Amino acid sequence: MSKITKKEWTGVFAVAGALDVIQWVIDFTGVGIAVNEVADPIIGVIALGYFEWRGVSMIKHMSRALSLLGATALEDLTGSIAPAWIIDVWYIHKSVVREEAEERAQQTEAEFMKTNIQKPLYKDGARQPRNISDNSQSQPANMNGIRAPGGGLN
Fold this sequence. Notes:
Layout: H1 6-26, H2 32-53, H3 62-77, H4 85-114, E1 122-123, E2 126-127, E3 142-143, E4 146-147
Antiparallel strand pairs: 1-2, 3-4
Helix pairs in contact: 1-2, 1-4, 2-3, 3-4
């Protein structure tokens, strides 16, 4: 899971926004396009390293790494008019939040399945078999033709 806190994400967004503004401003100078062509790969590698270092897997989720290339491509297509580092950070943040929510849901489900709380007998519209190792039902459901109160089943 990511080690980036909410406060740190705010800083990452601020840095990305500042980079976009700086790149847009230096485009008005005579050397702006050349500087941006050199700076973009360096910024991309630094961003990739930072996210990997902070626990956001860029290699395992190639869409994140490809988004870095997409930001560079968008900037090249628009002639450096629309630097897109902040859009890239937004996409990575969104994917990290979604991944962490999925992991928390899996952990919650695993913890629930480990508890001694009676599991639901119906799943996806079908009755599940009773847990054979569950010894709380030591007697049969019907005894001398009489069913126990509550249905006699777990």
